[in-house]
Design a protein that fits this description.
single chain, 502 residues, alpha+beta, 8-stranded antiparallel β-sheet, 6-stranded antiparallel β-barrel, 34% strand, disordered N terminus
């Protein structure tokens, strides 16, 4: 698996550097090391009094057995794709095509073609968080895997299954069948301090059980890579293969899950980023209890006050918000907690439950630990005057109900892939036939037996698994609706709107 690069860069001045996920394909690279080239610098270091470095051996001994190697396999598959045709090839293969309605001669077009995808393998890391085999890793380590193999530090191997995953935070929970496994002790990441020593443990570049040391460089970083971010930044070396590994404190306790690195080359060149355990704990609990993350929302969009002020200055505008710290509210979401609280565009959020909010990462980190229905006290400036209001957080659908992944049972119907004869008769390449309609959402929407589903919410439906994924995605979205398009047995096209909620 090639490392996925994030398109947006951190700053214009550093536009050659990008954020990359630290999951490794099966190849290795070597990096040269360089010694100091300046004699004065060496002399200056020599003249300084000797300082005993912090001893991290105990932390490594405690944490190493809890960090596992994850092998990802995505099997070869047959896929139908559209390919561009050569107009002259069309002409010579069918010189009368234009006369019989099969296309304009000399214009070309597209045609369906079956291709076989290659088998893909990659590696990453994970952290055992319970003695009965629950392991936390990154979503991008396991996303799309057909097989997951977990290898412990003592070289014992286990097959793993995915319990749940969350793309928004890039976290996943997997499970192996084991007993008395070496679970790591989890610390509260809110307590870590900038400058504190940490270890990054994982399996970078095929080098299993690797430990690197550094410090906490910053907290509550946002990079634009995931939907919800409040990263711990560290200068402990993180490379391809470290994804999902452990960031631990000097006591060997987990404070973060390593996720990505900041690099000009795809390899470590300065800083890595980890998802804090305060966020991880909430995601793990939700995946275990509900199967999906119960995401709370205030209902605003905005940016750091400094970013907003700087952007206005670039336009020649002078702005005085009464503070240079906090979150500038650029937009209020309709039917949201913020709207009900009376927060307006141009306000500045400065505290949540008494915790100071200096930048967007602070706000994201606090709200990511909450669930819909939780109440928080928001302190904000309105026309530079301080106000505090209690608000009840809501989910993306604008209420406080538990959001669960729906499965095909909610539709109350049975499906099968269209046969070869149906494809030829109806001149289609794929689809799912509704072979039975019982009580359920399909019947409520009026979908009849025999209707062939081809697209749901603009996604092609080639397998029953495609439909299952579409239902799952829609059930947790802002609008839990299926827009179904397809064809009747007569050849007439049609569409239906299926509401997944009451």
């Amino acid at each position: 698996m090639d490392m996925k690069k994030i398109v947006n860069f951190v700053t214009p001045a550093l536009s050659v550097a990008a954020i990359v996920f630290s999951v490794a394909a099966f190849n290795t690279t070597c990096a040269a090391t360089h010694s100091p080239s300046s004699a004065p610098e060496t002399a200056a270091v020599a003249s300084m009094p000797a300082v005993q470095p912090v001893d991290l051996t105990s932390a490594a001994d405690k944490a190493l057995p809890s960090v596992v190697h994850i092998k990802y396999v995505q099997n070869s598959k047959i896929q139908t794709v559209e390919v561009q045709t050569d107009p002259f090839e069309d002409f010579f293969s069918d010189p009368f095509g234009g006369f019989f309605g099969r296309g304009q001669r000399g214009q070309g077009g597209t045609r369906k073609q079956q291709v076989q995808t290659p088998k893909r393998t990659a590696t990453g890391s994970g952290v055992i968080i319970s003695t009965d085999g629950y392991i936390v890793t990154n979503n991008h380590v396991v996303d799309g895997a057909d097989e997951l193999t977990v290898t412990l530090s003592d070289n014992k191997e286990y097959s793993a299954r995915i319990i749940g995953a969350d793309k928004t935070t890039d976290l996943a929970l997997i499970k192996i069948d084991g007993k008395q496994l070496p679970a790591i002790k989890i610390a509260n990441s809110d307590d870590v301090k900038v400058g504190e020593w940490v270890l990054a443990i994982g399996n970078p570049l095929g080098l299993n059980n690797t430990v690197t040391a550094g410090i906490i460089s910053a907290k509550a970083r946002t990079l634009g890579a995931n939907g919800v971010e409040s990263f711990i930044q560290t200068d402990a070396a993180i490379n391809a293969g470290n994804s999902g590994g452990a960031l631990v404190n000097a006591n060997g306790e987990l404070v973060g899950i390593n996720a990505m690195l900041y690099s000009q080359t795809g390899s470590y060149s300065g800083y890595g980023f980890a998802i804090p355990t305060a966020m991880m704990n909430k995601v793990v609990d939700d995946l275990k209890q509900y199967g999906t993350v119960q995401r709370a929302m205030i209902g605003i969009s905005g940016t750091d006050v400094k970013n907003y002020v700087d952007s206005e200055k670039d336009k020649g505008n002078e702005v005085d918000l009464g503070t240079m710290e906090g979150i500038y509210v650029a937009e209020i979401v309709e039917n949201s907690a913020a709207e009900d609280a009376g927060i307006e565009k141009g306000d500045v959020i400065t505290e949540v439950d008494g915790q100071k909010v200096q930048k967007f990462g602070d706000l994201s980190g606090i709200i990511a630990q909450k669930r819909p229905g939780d109440k928080v006290k928001l302190t904000y400036l309105h026309n530079k005057k301080k106000q505090t209001k209690e608000v009840m957080l809501r989910n993306e659908q604008g209420n406080t109900k538990v959001v669960k992944n729906a499965d095909l049972d909610v539709l109350g119907a049975d499906f099968r892939e269209v046969t070869k004869a149906q494809k030829e008769q109806l001149e289609i390449n794929y689809g799912l036939e509704v072979i039975k309609v019982n009580a359920g959402k399909m019947k409520e929407a009026g979908v009849p037996k025999g209707f062939i589903i081809q697209r749901v919410n603009d996604e092609s439906m080639k397998t029953v698994e495609d439909l299952q994924q579409a239902v799952k995605d829609a059930s947790t979205s802002k609008e839990p609706v299926l827009i179904i398009r397809g064809i009747f047995p007569t050849g007439k096209t049609g569409y239906f709107v299926v509401q997944l909620t009451d």
